[in-house]
């Protein structure tokens, strides 16, 4: 028998705060309806994680992380079940399965590059508290944890508390490669009325934490604009990133949120119509009549700046059994495809990814906040995100809600089959932001035949093969039997030639939808309803949407 983890102080903290403010962004009940939970809320392959609050299960055995099997053992001082994250674990939220455990255990698998640091977002009115009490709160939790936590958790707390508090700057400060609205950073730095924190230093030292931190009685965290936050970076060299993310949110509940500094990569994959212009291809397969898109700005958040694109896809690309070496550009190609559909639209390139293909969480959030500022000044706007990764970064979701609430639709690439490489049956193959498409639905449902659909402000765009006139084989999940994926919301052609190179993949399907959205907004209100059409031979987008304007 495994003794309960609620007998000591930190285990009393964890089920209450991890369930209510988990980094993995998974829904949690309003009250504590279960005793078992997972610590940390996120972990990278090779890192240790624990299940706490379980009783009546063997002291050692096997459990599954998605479809990957790993061994667990009882950590006797804490009563927690320790397990090492499988090296081949699929990225993003995965289900933990263990006989005798609740079926609702989840953990966010951080498949991020080595050396990825922690990014923190801090409420402006809590910035002074975070910086003044950063070390003291970590030390208080270290003392509370001294006799009740696994040794590794105690070590992480001691090493983390030895670091200085992170320097904080307004989230909307200008960054290289993109413009930020003048004055916005200054407004972000203005401190609003101070409110009582959800947790304080005394709370961390209190003996009876269960009553104080029960989410059923604790006031809910106010909903704030992510764009008004201050941001900073916490170095994680030698520390498990998942624990750092979780512990920082734990000690500053409601005042501080976290993400990895890495948010993803440009999505690409391994076009008939050689050397034909994109609009010529689209005219042939969708009968697109390129309308002006005048008065609409398409914001390309990618590898390009207003003056160039330094990204190069190194190595040979095998396309229809022919090799093409070192293909240049990504964001620039995305923009050219979008403008082919809506030639009158203005393109605004915002660089959020570096020339090596790594995309910055901070730059992406800053770029979206700049789009929100533009939208508040007026005009029509569309965002294209042909980038993504397996982890649901919180700042990105909040910033997307900021822009979509202003009537700005977003086209995001669904992700390609290489995202699911090496995964096994039972693994979930995630790709964000595309996999949030359902949570951005709005308005009443519309009946289309036997289906009931709702429009969305976030379009997850899969690739449609213009040769086979069917769902492209490069799409995520295709050819990966048993791997679980969220369905896309729409398909679009994703194979084009630009400058003598083939560009194909969901990255290049997304700007087709961005261009169509810009064209739609020229003469139509709101956003179109784009059902997922998967009938072979049938056009993936209805003619009424493709040519909505005269």
Describe this structure in words.
The protein has 550 residues and is α+β, with helices and mostly antiparallel strands. The chain folds into three domains: 37-109, Immunoglobulin-like (Sandwich), CATH 2.60.40; 112-176 and 226-260; 278-547, Peptidase S8/S53 domain (Rossmann fold), CATH 3.40.50.200. Helices cover 25% and strands 24% of the residues. The chain has 13 helices and 28 strands. It has an eight-stranded mixed beta sheet. Strands 14, 17, 19, 21, 24, 25 and 26 form a seven-stranded mixed beta sheet that branches. Helix 2 packs antiparallel against helix 3. It is globular, with a radius of gyration of 24 Å. Mean pLDDT is 82; it is low at 1-34, 179-193 and 207-219. One of its GO terms (molecular function) is serine-type endopeptidase activity. Belongs to the peptidase S8 family. One of its GO terms (biological process) is proteolysis. Residues 1-24 form the signal peptide. Residues 338-522 form the Peptidase S8/S53 domain.
